[in-house]
Amino acid sequence: MRRGWKMALSGGLRFCRRMLAWVPVLVIVLVVLWSYYAYVFEMCVVTVANTVEKVIYLAVYHALFVFFIWTYWKSIFTLPHQPHQKFFMSYGDKERYENEERPEVQKQMLLDIAKKLPVYTRTGNGAVRFCDRCHLIKPDRCHHCSVCSMCVLKMDHHCPWVNNCIGFSNYKFFLQFLAYSVLYCLYIATTVFQYFIKYWVGDLPNTRSKFHVLFLLFVACMFFVSLMILFGYHCWLLSRNKTTLEAFSAPVFLSGPDKNGFNLGFIRNFQQVFGENKKLWLLPIGSSPGDGHSFPMRSMNESQNPLLANEEHWEDNEEDGRGPHHLSFL
């Protein structure tokens, strides 16, 4: 009886936690719905007098709005990809691993299993990356999400504003969402500004629309600044072919840590997320190459293009403040 009560309580708490996780998404949805009403009706229909200007404003606004909502929807409801079944331990291997008490033997067992898999990254002490909760050998760039309670391929981070893990399956959609969000806020701010001034100086009558127009500009500017910072950071990550997790902790390879281990150059880094089909770059349609289990690495390309190694050398020098331009001023 007591056990059943505890299970019911635990299930209730999990349900409440899942519901609370949707609160940030609900906040965003409510703000967007209000912004739609304020811009379309209070700004364009009521405030803007010129018909041509009104039509142009509404046409461009709805084009941005559609892409903004589309990419937000895809970021929320595109499920994160989990590793293939071949990365999971078999029942026999799992039983032997858990019964083994010697760490060095466990480490060797994982090495033997990993030999059959395309994994090249390691833990900080050189061991095979293993998830003791999912009981699997982690593919390169895969991490366990404590919120989603599963391992996610090429995990970037868990985003509360979309209530989803951002990883291989939806990182492209997340970047597009940030880009269209920035454009959405910027467009609202630039088109509303002249009417904000007119209301402020009293050129327009003091009606209900005044509050919506004034507040719309403040909200658009506030979100634009915060989103632009986040979008700029992820553009930098994209240019280096890094995830948020890899930016904080460099991936470790057989040869040791390498913060540029997956950096293939800007064009190829971009294609690793958006693909090679240019027609799909602006659309929230999956086009990332590969299956999320393995990725081209810089070390494998240096033998084909030795300039990559030289490029990394200069990048490290510049980041350490020891580049040629810095030296000329000493």
Automatic annotation (TrEMBL):
GO molecular function annotation: protein-cysteine S-palmitoyltransferase activity
Top-level taxon in the UniProt lineage: Eukaryota
Keywords: Acyltransferase, Membrane, Transferase, Transmembrane, Transmembrane helix
InterPro entries referenced in this protein's UniProt entry, alphabetically: Palmitoyltrfase_DHHC (IPR001594), PFA4/ZDH16/20/ERF2-like (IPR039859)
GO CC term (a single one): membrane
Annotated domain remarks: The DHHC domain is required for palmitoyltransferase activity.
Protein name: Palmitoyltransferase
Native organism: Sarcophilus harrisii
